[in-house]
Each structure stands twice: as C-alpha cells, then as structure tokens.
Amino acid sequence: MITDHFLLDNTLASIVAAVQTYYPQLVIIMSAVLAGLATLHLAMPAIRSISHGNLVGFLPDFAITLLRIGLLLVCMANVADWGNDIIDGMQQIAGNVTGQNPATLTPSGVFNAGLAILSTLEDAAGVGGWWHPILGIEYAVLIAIVFLAFFAAAVIFLLTLIAARWVIYTGPIWIALAGLEQTYDSFIQWGVRLIGISVYVLLQIMVIAVGLTLVHNWSTTLTANKGAIMSNLYCSNFTGK
Q1: Which of 103, 140, 125, 115 is CA-nearest to residue 215?
Q2: Is residue 218 part of a domain?
Q3: Span 147-168, average pLDDT
Q4: What separation, in Å, do the N-terminal and C-terminal C-alpha atoms of the chain show?
Q5: In a domain, 15, yes or no
Q6: pLDDT per residue as tens digits for the range 92-106
Q7: For residue 233, pLDDT beyond 60
Q8: 20 to 30 A Cα–Cα from 114, which one of 52, 56, 96, 108?
C-alpha cells in the first residue's frame, strides 16, 4: 500500500524540535525582560506613595503586583508543557468522542487514508482493465481528485497544528510584556488565543475523525466491488446517479 512514510508527521516533529532548540534561550531572555518590567512596575506605585507620604497605601498595590508577577513567572516556566498538554488533550477528547485512535488523527494519518483509497482504485484498475480511452480519462480525473482532496486536508491540518505550536512557543514573549499593569492585557489576550486555537484543533480533529470513518466505509465498499468498479453501470450505482 502507498504511504507518505510519515512525511507530514515528521515535518511537524522537525519544526517543533527546531523551535525547542531555541526555546530555553527565549525563556531566559523573556524572564529577564519580565524581571525588568516587574521592577519598574513595583517602583511606580512606590514612588507615587512616597511622593504622597502614604507608605501604607503602597502595600495593597505591592501585594497585587507580587501576585501578578508570581502568576506570570509560573506560566513562563510551564507554558510549553501546559500548552502542549492542552493540544494533546484536545486530540484525546476528539478520539474518545469519535472512537478513532488518536494516533491516526495526524496529518500523515489523514493523507495515508487517502492513499489507501488510491491503492484500492489501482488494484481495481488492474482487475477491471482500465485501458479504454473514456475509462482511462475517468480514472485519471478520479485519482487526481482523491489525491488533491486528501493532500489538501492533511496540509490544512498540519498548518493548524503548526499554528497551535506557534501560539504556545511564543507565549513567553507575551507573558514577559505583561509585566507592566498597562500591558497586562497582553497575557490575557495570549491566553484567549491559546484557548481559541485549542478549540479549533478539537473541532478540526473531530471533523477529520468523522471523515476517516467514512473513508474506511468507502474503502471497504471499493475493495468488495473492485472487480466491477470500472463499469459505468457500477459507477453510476455507487454515486447514486
């Protein structure tokens, strides 16, 4: 059977591995930025309280600032693990809901499902004798449509997973910029983007899982009828026209 030899899955893994090579350095740099902004943020209310001669009024701002900085530091240290766990969890949920093995809900899994259909059609070509001009054209068009459809679906899914990893691994940048009260919303906005891309991954995987179930049924039907698949009568019956 034709497969992509996990080319798409390996592409995603290679991109993630390359990002992870530089990610620790990014975290170190952004931690320093966060520390500088946090120091500045602590200094601002302190200077304001001292100028007004009200040191007691500085304590609530100081406590709130420490809590914010603590939250940001915890997220900075765990953003990659938590983000990847969220994405993996969405894949697991989709697999549980649809009954599909999560290991097959990957870009290569989608593409290989289409290639399995192509293999079945090629076997049918050998059995049914496709070397007639009209049937040969129909076969070529059908093969192209099936290949392009599954390849496009697999690439779209791959790009979605890359986008999800991009949101995860750029998290330290937005977390560091949230060190000031005026820019704290950048952390909230990043969190909203992470949740949004996670839900999008979940929905896309569920659609793919349903599609793979239909593909399995089609493959079973094609395999059972490959001896007659080339007849125009069978094709019209199979398409319902």
Answers
A1: 115
A2: yes
A3: 93
A4: 30
A5: yes
A6: 887 787 777 777 788
A7: no
A8: 96
- Residue-by-residue DSSP string for 120-184: HHHHHHHHHT--SHHHHHHHHHHHHHHHHHHHHHHHHHHHHHHHHHHHHHTHHHHHHHTTSGGGT
Residue for token digits 């600032």? 65
Window from 14-18, 129-133, 192-196, 214-218 with minimum mean pLDDT? 129-133
- Which amino acid is located at 241 in the chain? K
173 half-sphere exposure, CB direction, 13 A CA radius: 6
Domain tally, the chain: 1
Rounded distance between C-alpha atoms, residue 117 and residue 2, angstroms: 9
* Cα angle for residues 70, 25, 91 (degrees, 5° grid): 75
Sign for the pseudo-dihedral over CA of 222, 223, 225, 229: positive
Q: Residue 203's closest CA among 82, 90, 85, 84?
A: 90
Between helix 58-98 and helix 7-51 the angle, nearest 10°, is 160
CA-wise closest residue to 170 among 184, 191, 198: 191
CB atoms within 10 A of CB 209: 22
In a domain, 35, yes or no: no
Domain-embedded: residue 138: yes
Identify residue 114 by its one-letter amino acid code.
Answer: G
